[in-house]
Amino acid sequence: AATGPAPHLKRAGGTATVKAMLLEWCRARTRGYEHVDVQNFSGSWGSGLAFCALLHSFFPDAFEYGSLEPGARRHNFTLAFATAEERAGCAPLLEVEDMVRLPVPDAKCVYTYLQELYRCLVAKGLVKTKKR
Q1: 102 vs 12, higher pLDDT
Q2: Distance between CA atoms of 111 and 52, rounded to whole angstroms?
Q3: CATH number of the domain bearing residue 107
Q4: What is the pTM for the complete model shown?
């Protein structure tokens, strides 16, 4: 049998690795938040609460997470995107109207937005990254 590290687990990965790492980061930051279970970049974000939880984990004084309701999608998306723009300097890449119109958010759009939010949080020094 072969020994050594598995060739498919190399450090320098492609898009799939970045996606998996971003999803795991979101999962870790939102763990313990009620009504949030991040499993993917689409349905997990449908109520807006995952966005709120992610932002609340960085800015707990921005709003009272416990007062949010899963059914108040428009309010949740509006709150999350406004908080991201005001507190993290994140460009409003997603429209509230688009998010409430679709029962399940578009995974590519959510992924792109989360990449931008992550980048903004790193730039503000709120997320520490490993030096290469």
Answers
A1: 102
A2: 15
A3: 1.10.418.10
A4: 0.86
